[in-house]
Design goal:
- This protein is mostly beta strands.
- 8% of the residues lie in helices and 37% in strands.
- The chain is built from 3 helices and 17 strands.
- A hairpin with a 2-residue loop joins strand 11 and strand 12 (162-178).
Amino acid sequence: MRILLAALAATLFSASAYAQDEAASELSEISTAYDARGWEAVGRLNIGWGGMCSGALIAPDLVLTAAHCAFNSQGKIVEPSEIAFHAGFRNGHAAASRRVKRVVVHPGYQFQGTEGVFEVSNDLALFQLQSEIRLSNIVPFATGARPRKGDSVGVVSYAHNRASSPSIQETCHILARQRGALIMSCDVDFGSSGAPIFDLSGDYPRIVSVVSAKGEVQGRRVSFGTSLEDPLADMMAILRGGGGQIAAPSANIIRSDAPRRLAGGGGEGAKFVKP
């Protein structure tokens, strides 16, 4: 589904939806080891020569993120070996780092570039790592059912102005649902693409969507995500069948430190979709 922000104000929101969201929590940095406990499977994706997105492990070797993170500015999928996942990246150090060997983009996603109209439906990708991350403090997240309008969710994300450590917003809300898209009050910015949206109502957090884009409606900042269940099942089937973009045989092993350049200064890796 393509969404044009100017068309949303008259159709999606009501005063009651915004009033309900006054209870939303502030975005706070995860700066200490204590704060980071349980969130180590969220990580920063360094893409190409300077691109950045967020992502999260859903299996020891599978990172769930946004599909547009896999594309360069020419609309081509970035060579998988040029994508690195830094799990639990905080204060300049990662708990574990791996390069990507396979990229599976949902077949229903169409990359539309980074300006104006953008695609939200099926904006999902799986990055299969070159080797599994099996550490006791890095536990992949389960996934959950699509949330309803009014439900509380949370988000853990990186962004261009907070690239060294993740931040968490424990309470934001689903403002509306429309044909495979979720419109949320979560606080996100450039670099937050692919960040996991969590259902935090149970004993353990479950990923129910990923961040696709940000925008503004009626003077309020909003974020957009995609439905997860059916698209994720589609991509898992492709992965089991051996499909997807495979890294070149000459791919090198990732160093433990992050590339020197970060998102926000250009480069090939897709950054946050610009509304």
